[in-house]
Fold this sequence. Notes:
Number of helices: 10
Strand order of the largest sheet: 1-2-4-3
Shape: globular
Bound molecules: flavin mononucleotide
Oligomer: single chain
Number of strands: 4
CATH topology of the domain at 21-95 and 134-226: NADH Oxidase
Structural class: alpha+beta
Helix content: 40-55%
Strand content: 5-15%
Distance between the termini: 37 Å
CATH superfamily of the domain at 21-95 and 134-226: NADH Oxidase
Amino acid sequence: xxxxxxxxxxxVLDEILAHRRAVRQFAATPLxxxxxxxxxxxxxxxxxxxxMQFWEFYRVKTPAKKEVLAHxxxxxxxxxxxxxxxxxxxxxxxxRQRARRVLEETLQLAPDPQAAYLxxxxxxxxxxxxxxxFMDPLGIKGIFTRLFLRLKRLTRPGVLTGSACDLRVTAHxxxxxxxxxxxxxxxxxGYDSCPMEGFDGPRIRRFLGLPRTAEISMVIALGKADxxxxxxxxxxxxxxxVYREV
Length: 246
Ligand SMILES: Cc1cc2nc3c(=O)[nH]c(=O)nc-3n(C[C@H](O)[C@H](O)[C@H](O)COP(=O)(O)O)c2cc1C
């Protein structure tokens, strides 16, 4: 760790980012409840489009349930060896409840009930977002929304979105930010993780008793890295390959 004189937020962040590796071999050390709870709370501070917070977190820690879930993660090393598993779920299907909940709390917390932003919030959460995230089973509304936006974009810049697929991308993008915040917190607490998308999503959904409309974003293996296990080298592209100034 850095000495106090060198401790700046940027250095602390560097240390956390260096610590966070995709760990697949774990020691038998259990994860303290507080570490997981604090990390979920930090994950919930992740930004989200329209502050809709489409995430849910399912912690699976009893050995019997963990074994079933590891099997649904295709029995991969990280899942089998983890002290426990966290399933990060996308609940775009709860858009009405989420919009209502965010609006209610925004209204409650606003010091000035006449503030101009409250009018906007009422419109957004009361009408715009519920309309935007509504999707009929055949996705027909999405086709018309996209067509309308395409026409609108003929004369000025505009967002081209609205299909069922676009909405899923938005929701998964949001939830992935929370998953990353969670893993960084786990690293900051001195523990380790491995995000996984090698899993059988529909079976995990059934295992958790979730409706068909819920989607699995990631399963995260958690624990303390086995100090004797060797990590692969950390391979990253160079800045020249991925960074442009325009
Ligand atoms: C969305 C996502 C899915 C991943 N799925 C798996 C997986 O199923 N199994 C696995 O062992 N690692 C998985 N990884 C971990 C990556 O392999 C790992 O992050 C990458 O190799 C870089 O290594 P590092 O995280 O140690 O820097 C996944 C990572 C992400 C972000």
